[in-house]
Every structure is written in C-alpha cells, then in structure tokens.
Amino acid sequence: MPPCLKPPVIVWFRDDQRLADNPALEYAIATGHPIVCVYIYDSKPQNVRAYGEATRWWLAKSLQALNTELVALGGELTLLCGSESQSIKALAIAIGAIEVCWNRRYLAAQRETDRAIKMALKTRSIEVSTFNGYLLREPWTVATRNGRPFKIFSAYWRAACYEYSPQAPRLKPQQINFFPVPKNIAQVAPLRTLSTITIQCLAPNFSKRSFKIWKCGEQAGWIQLNDFLTNSLSYYASGRDFPAMQVTSQLSPYLRFGNLSVRQVWHALRSIASSVSTASGSIDKFLYELGWREFSYYLLYHYGTLHQVNFKRQFDAMPWRNADTELHAWRCGRTGYPLVDAGMRELYHTGWIHNRVRMVTASFLVKHLLINWREGESWFWDRLVDADEASNPANWQWVAGSGADAAPYFRIFNPILQSEKFDMKATYVRRWVPELSRLPNECIHAPWLAQSGQLASASVKLGQNYPWPIVLHQQARKRALMAIEHIR
C-alpha cells in the first residue's frame, strides 16, 4: 500500500450492481477511506445454483455497465474469478483493507458463506459491515403475532406494509476516492483489462436471438422505469393480462441484478400517485406485485430451497409422468396450443415471457402434461434473464399448487379460453407463431378445430408445419384431477 494512502475499504458488489441507493457503497464512502469495488464470479459455487444461460448473459453486460460508471468516476471494477471465501479474503489481505462492506443475501447457503467470510476476516482484524440493499423489508422483520413466519401472502403483505414506508433512496455519488489496486496481486484482474474471450465465457452468444431488445445496467434500468411510468403505468391494471398490449414494466431483470433498487421503484411510483389519480389502481396493483417478490424472498429465508422441496409436502406423493418427448415439445413451443407455443418461443428468443403467459405455460406443463414442476422451473432458470432463487421457484410452486398460498391444483387453465380472452385478435400468437398468422381469429386459437378449407387457405398443414395438440384439454384435465385425488 502506498504510504500516503489510508488503508482501503472494499465494497463487494453482488446482486446490487448500481451506484445510486447502494447502502454498502454509501457507507464505505462515508468512512473517508479509499474504496476498492469488487465483484466475484464463481462458475462452480458450492450449495448454490450456477447462473443460467440467460442470467449469465445479463450478468456480463451488467458488470460491463457498472465498470463504465466506475471508470467515469476515476476508478474501475475489480473482477475476481473463483471461490468467494478465498477470493475476498486474499484480496483484503493483499491490499491491507481495513474493512469489507456488502449488502446482504437471503439464501441459506449464501448466508452461511457470508458468516464464514465475516469470521475469517475478523480473525485478521478486518471489520465487516453489512446492509439491506435488496428488499423493502428483510425477512426477519415481519412475523405473526406469535412470532412465527407467515404462510399466506395477503396476511404477510398487510403486516409488512402496516405503518411502514421504506426510506427514501439515496442519490448516486458524484465522486469516489478510489484505491489503486496493484496489478501484480495474484488473482486480481480489473474488468477493463479482461480479454474478450473471458467476457464471452460469462455471456453466451445470443446473436441469433432477440436479446438485443435488452439494455443492461443502472442507466438502462432508469430508462426502463421512466418509460413504464410515462407510457404504460396508466394502463397497467387494466392491460397487464393482455400480452399484446405490452404494458407490463419489464423491470424484473433490473431488480434481480440490483440495477435498480426496490426502494427506488417504490418511491418513484409513490411520487406520482398524487399527480396521476387515474393511475392509482395501477400503482396499487404494481406495488402488490412488488409485495409478491418480497414474499418470495421471505419464503426462501424461512423455509429453505424452494426449487427442490415442495412447500406442501403432500405433493411429494404426486404421480408425475416421465414424458421426455412432451417435455421437449413444450420447451420448443411445439405443443399444438398456440398461446402456449407463443410464450415458450418468446422465452427462447428474448429471455423473458409475459406474466399471464408464464402462468398459462407453467400450468400446461404441470397439469396438462402432468410433468414435475421442477422440470419447468429448471428450464425457466436457464432461459429467463430475471430468474432468481426466490421468485422463480415460488411462482412455479404457486402454479403447481404445492407452494405457499398457492393456486389450488384443480384450477386448470384452459389454454384455448386463455388465448381467446387475453389475445382476442391473436396479435401475440401471430407474432411468435407466424406459421398460423393467416388463420382467421375465430380458429387461430385452436387450429385443429378449423375447417380444412380454412387451413388450406392459410397454408397450415397440421402435423407438418404446425403440430397437432400433444394432448386434448378435456382428457388432460381429467387426468390431472385424478392425480390430485391420489395425494389427498
């Protein structure tokens, strides 16, 4: 360490890849010590799922954006590759750090890792300070009157919101006193000096898909938020279930990686509530959705690995089917049900899928095909840019009926009626299933019921350029209801 410098403070970025409203960064700057900003990428983490293909792509782009922001302030992001425990300790010792700061995580294995790191650093007389930079309310701050965790969302959300308002988000720092990390320290490689090959190892090649619709990072998150507030919010409550309307926020990946904080989103909505009275219903509805995200992390903290274990253990006896051919057809958007296929193709091409269609596609896999929800959750984990350890499995268990406050298993979406109701003019279906685009509205939702002349004039050849249904709705519904009787 150069003799003229104070010992540095390390800010360990995780799922908080932003400069504004970042409590760990704000605290570190306030110490008056020079700052080292670091991210650790572990491609083979222990007891934690590795990033999926799509989240790995977003991560690389997000880190590049974060580094650009730091470079503009005169610093850079230090990227370490390997074990979190070994990497952060080695860096702290090598540069003579006096303290390490981070924003907290909530998966049990991550919490255990953080505890072990804290103990290891303190044995070296290196202080550790941690903060809430990811949730409105951390899981241990909300409980029932007898001190137990909630299991019902509505009750949880009432308690979480009762006489509570999150602190106002903090502004982006205008200057940061950076500590110059020596280039000869083992395992330390600033992001701006990494080769293109290394970046590509983090981010798969999506050149043949439509990931170009996404701009990643903090500035892109603010653009997306402002666009939603300006152009879509007023229509959110009435139009959020209609995929062709495109009025959902698409903020989920920015929240997932912390390009935006949930406090920033909350206060942005609240700040316009009084001036946009026509949007009050939409604001309340959107805040309710933020509440479901909070509840998902609450469940993750209190009840463990949601992607592995049924919240309702009676579902352990569910007679799931092994049907690889049907599973493959579902993944590829070749089920013969246009709305389901449109959703699965949107997922493949963009890394995202409309919320109403997420429910329809998930219900189809679990109930029409009677395939274990874990198969779908795993596929979404790999393909969604917003996949996380809480919301993704919590949503899948909700659809399957095995989760907390879940939809009853006997609630089986009819994919034909869902298509007719929420994509009446088939705008969404025609976009993602173009081989059906010339069919008239009255038969595009169930093309196998169309007359031969209608199919011929639309150049649709069932079983050739578009599949027959892989299962009939009424038969699938009957089979699903028999399965739930098996575990009652």
Automatic annotation (TrEMBL):
Cofactor note: Binds 1 FAD per subunit.
Binding positions (FAD): Y236, T248, S249, Q250, L251, S252, F286, D386, A387, D388
Annotated GO biological process: photoreactive repair; response to light stimulus
Keywords: Chromophore, FAD, Flavoprotein, Lyase
Record has Flavoprotein as a keyword: yes
One Gene Ontology molecular-function label: FAD binding
Domain of life according to the entry: Bacteria
Transmembrane spans: none
Cofactor dependence: FAD; (6R)-5,10-methylene-5,6,7,8-tetrahydrofolate
EC number(s) stated in the UniProt entry for this protein: 4.1.99.3
Domain Photolyase/cryptochrome alpha/beta: 7-136
Broad EC category: lyase
Catalytic reaction(s) noted: cyclobutadipyrimidine (in DNA) = 2 pyrimidine residues (in DNA)
Site (Electron transfer via tryptophanyl radical): W320, W373, W396
Identification of the protein by name: Deoxyribodipyrimidine photo-lyase
Native species: Candidatus Vallotiella hemipterorum
